[in-house]
Structures are given as C-alpha cells and as structure tokens.
Amino acid sequence: MRPGRLDQLIYIPMPDLESRKSILRAALRKSPVSADVPLDVVATHLDKFSGADIMEVCQRAAKYAIRESIEKDYERRKAAEEAGESIDETEDFDDVPEITKAHFEMALSEARRSVSDADLLKYGSFAQNLQQQRGQMLGGATSFQFGDTGNAGGASAAMDDDDDDDLYS
Predict the structure, then answer these.
(1) pLDDT digits (tens, 9 = 90+) for 74-128
(2) Model pTM?
(3) 39: domain CATH number?
(4) What is the DSSP track for 40-81?
(5) Looking at residue 132, what DSSP letter applies?
(6) Is residue 20 part of a domain?
C-alpha cells in the first residue's frame, strides 16, 4: 500500500461472547423481547458471526414477530366476519408484538455467516503479519537519529534572517 488517505490497515476480530451479548442488547433495545428469550444462549449460538450478521438475525426475528401478529389479526378479522360479528376498530390489539423464542429459532435457522472459516484464518494471519511489521517499523523509527550538524546552513540559518519573504512567520 502506498501512503495516503487510507494508508492504515486495521484488524478487527469477530466479536467474543460478551461483545455478541452487547450487540444483541443494542440491536434489541427498542424491541419488545419476551422475558423468556435467553439472549446468552442466542449469543453463544452466534459464534463467528460479525456484528452485521447478528443485527440481521435480530431484524429477521422482529420481522417474524410482526408477520405473525399481522396473520393473527387477519385470522381474527376473518373469524369475526364469518361469524357475522362486527369488528371493533377501537379494540385493543397488540400493535407491537413480542419477539419470542420461536421467532429467534426461525431467524437462527436461516442465519448465515458473512465471513467463512477460510477468511477468518486469512485475516488472522494478516493480523499477525501486520503486528510483526509494525514491530519492525517501530524498531527502525527508534534507531533513527539526526547527526550533530551544528548551526551551519539549513533551517536554523534561515530562521536568523529577518526577510519579509519568510512564509512561516
């Protein structure tokens, strides 16, 4: 790589268990999750999933909950219509359904990792090589020293002049 705007390579590993739990909590903080959903178990199952992959699982589980709620409402309306009953539009209906274990089970059954095991090995070796290269660069940078050149010529002589052409004053 050449020096410039994007000249640093940064290795960010897959989230560990605690990070996956944090990602789940963040993704679901505004969603009504059933109290019986064990997020620890979900986080354990999502090993080697990226943060974006975990977010997708949460979104998919929420969509399943919404879809189920819509289907229940449709069935309720259909049953009322068939029975000849009027549908009370002001009736309390759960507009925000809870995400249950079943929704997470469906979402997890379709979940796919975006980073393969081969990619993880490649990135792991990349991180090791990057760390070694940075260690070598630091060793080179600390061994550099300016020689004792005195005040002859160079920038210090230019600083003594009181020219109006000096761009830095």
Answers:
(1) 888 888 888 877 766 555 555 678 999 999 999 999 999 999 999 888 888 888 8
(2) 0.67
(3) 1.10.8.60
(4) HHHHHHTTT--HHHHHHHHHHHHHHHHHHHHHHHHHHHHHHH
(5) H
(6) yes
